DNA sequence: ATGTCAACAGAATGTTGA
């Protein structure tokens, strides 16, 4: 049975519960992975989503920051949560579907402003997080697995509005791209979005600070859908719902979709 | 340095993080 999955950094699931509901109603993904819920789990308005046909929710949360959740119309059971770099943050949850597919939902640390771990602890934490990711998935290569989330890195030149102007901007520096690539390779992960859409500029995030985000279009592809090597061929129909960035009181991220024939 | 958001602490705005 094919299923469609979406990943979306919602930037407060309580404030934007109406937008989540709109996405569920209008697009109807089978599974929606959220990041930056910024809410303790017990304060996530799960009944709103349940009433829309998404009775299954697994989540990790904390007060004010981070937080990840998976909403599903298919039964999903928790399959652990990882705390890379020992941050003690709610940045990951894994779930398993009845067909045996595991879904990892990640919110990788943003990394602060200065791309130098000697002067910016947050940048060091981001690199350490990615190194731990590499080591974890390298230990035992995942199978029948999908990894999604806000990875806070735009790896390719055509994943940013200006490769040259962003080389020293956190999210597109070579050291971050290398760390992400190492995690990807160690786990045998494949970039489903770029397998589907190999050519051209592709963004999932536009800063709030731009006066006209749509016209300026200074975006970055920070949100990703990966598949383990054994199911890479099952992924298709990738798309980014850019329109959601223009909704009333939007998140600064747009949802990324993929369908899997599994 | 700036721009714009959101949550928190604690009672108005400043801080932290993105």
Automatic annotation (TrEMBL):
This is Exodeoxyribonuclease III. Keywords: Hydrolase, Magnesium, Metal-binding. It comes from the Bacteria. Residues 6-253 form the Endonuclease/exonuclease/phosphatase domain. Its cofactor is Mg(2+). It holds the Pfam family Exo_endo_phos. Belongs to the DNA repair enzymes AP/ExoA family. InterPro entries: AP_endonuc_1, AP_endonuclease_F1_BS, Endo/exonu/phosph_ase_sf, Endo/exonuclease/phosphatase, ExoIII-like. GO terms for molecular function: double-stranded DNA 3'-5' DNA exonuclease activity.
